[in-house]
Write a structure and sequence with these properties.
Length: about 120
């Protein structure tokens, strides 16, 4: 498990600004600084989980809150009408670049499959 502080922890403390689109008691959602689609928003839990592999059974409710927040963001951004993709990268080979679980909400155009 990684104990290194990440940019997301600094964002949660307000030390680094973000373009916030959603917040509740469990999650924060904000625009990705390097968007890969017309709409690219990150949803993070307010309690650090490194990634899916590091999540424990006790994290089940928080993981569900992340998915519900992603759904709310997609609806708020108007992506529910045409579709969108939710992505969790896990580990280096999975493309995870920040050691803090986050869900990418991608949409605004037709997305190709396979992704990469």
């Amino acid at each position: 498990m990684s104990n290194n502080e990440t940019i997301f922890e600094k964002i949660l403390r307000g030390e680094i600004p973000c373009k916030k689109v959603f917040e509740n008691e469990h999650c924060l959602a904000f625009h990705d600084i390097s968007p890969q689609a017309p709409t690219h928003i990150l949803v993070i839990p307010k309690r650090k989980i490194v990634n899916v592999m590091e999540a424990g059974d006790e994290d089940a409710q928080l993981l569900g809150e992340v998915l519900l927040a992603a759904r709310s963001v997609a609806k708020q951004e108007g992506l529910d009408a045409t579709g969108y993709r939710l992505v969790f990268n896990n580990g280096a080979d999975g493309g995870q670049s920040v050691d803090y679980l986050h869900c990418h909400v991608l949409g605004g155009r037709a997305l190709a499959w396979p992704p990469g």
